[in-house]
Amino acid sequence: MAPRRLGRTVSIRTDETYKKLRYAAVSVVFVPIGQILIQILGLWLHNYTAASLLQAAVITAPNFFANKHFVWRVTSRENVRSQVLVFWVAVMLGVALATLFTHLAEIATVHRAGLIRGTAVLAAQLLGLGIVWVGRFLILDRWLFKLAGDTPEHADDVVGELPI
């Protein structure tokens, strides 16, 4: 019985790794799209801070549905609720921090050329989103799932529920 449990534990870790890779893949698609939107809207509105907020309003719903379809598709119903909560908390924190950094970059580069301003905004956005993205995996996921009682033993039950 011990080897079987070990095999399932390895399978669970592999599934979790694939889930994180799918999450990263969705981010690799949506972050560049969002950054392109910010650059275009920032030039059009002459306000990168407003462009950051507008971009978030446009891109968040498709990002949510991409996560729902690609990342959470093999997650138990109980864990989907946690994933959705984590997603929305991360989105709100990411947008807030990236927009704050964008505002500060915009103020610091007010008299600079458009290319320098756009580059500063891009760096500010990536810094804000990156801090939240790393924080999500290091802090928020572990904290929420420990509160939910997810343990390797509980994960075995979840994998047992999945149709294979």
Automatic annotation (TrEMBL):
<feature type="transmembrane region" description="Helical">
    <location>
        <begin position="116"/>
        <end position="139"/>
    </location>
</feature>
<feature type="transmembrane region" description="Helical">
    <location>
        <begin position="85"/>
        <end position="104"/>
    </location>
</feature>
<keyword id="KW-0472">Membrane</keyword>
<keyword id="KW-0812">Transmembrane</keyword>
<protein>
    <recommendedName>
        <fullName>GtrA-like protein domain-containing protein</fullName>
    </recommendedName>
</protein>
<keyword id="KW-1133">Transmembrane helix</keyword>
<feature type="transmembrane region" description="Helical">
    <location>
        <begin position="48"/>
        <end position="65"/>
    </location>
</feature>
<feature type="transmembrane region" description="Helical">
    <location>
        <begin position="21"/>
        <end position="42"/>
    </location>
</feature>
